[in-house]
Amino acid sequence: EPEVTQTPSHQVTQMGQEVILRCVPISNHLYFYWYRQILGQKVEFLVSFYNNEISEKSEIFDDQFSVERPDGSNFTLKIRSTKLEDSAMYFCASRGPGPPYEQYFGPGTRLTVT
Amino acid sequence: GESVGLHLPTLSVQEGDNSIINCAYSNSASDYFIWYKQESGKGPQFIIDIRSNMDKRQGQRVTVLLNKTVKHLSLQIAATQPGDSAVYFCAENMGNYGQNFVFGPGTRLSVLP
Fold this sequence. Notes:
Chain A has 114 residues and is mainly beta.
């Protein structure tokens, strides 16, 4: 069964450093998403991406964040200058044209900012 | 700053019993809802969805009920099994299918042997 993959599984970085979280969505999917989940809290939407552009973003997704689909398979989330409060699990998701509008989630990348 | 975690409501059920997990959603304009299951250390996994023009939808061992009048969703799991132990989230879509989903805080389901 096809699945969304994410690398790395755990990233430790120092405050102020840039990080890039990588995702390989399911191959025939067209809609891509990033979510984050701070430990013990609920899943929060960050951004959605379709047709090579951002279609929607939340208040969390400020100028420190960017997304890119550099080639036909990868989807990346960049945090330009990490802060302590960026520590969280980051989930990538993708979906097909729908219905159903099911988003398939990857296993997540745990980002720890020290 | 200090991060305060949510205290997740917990539902404990005996193996074989039925489980009912509830969710209150926030926006009366939401027209699409998904229930997700999240096991420890994994990403959310789709269980079942429902559109606002329905009030009930059944899947394999699961049923979702939607009451738009009181903005309430429930997930019923029949014959609960140990593998059902997880955190369950409802997610509502604010009127544009498949885009920004707002997740609820979740309920932890513990299945007792």
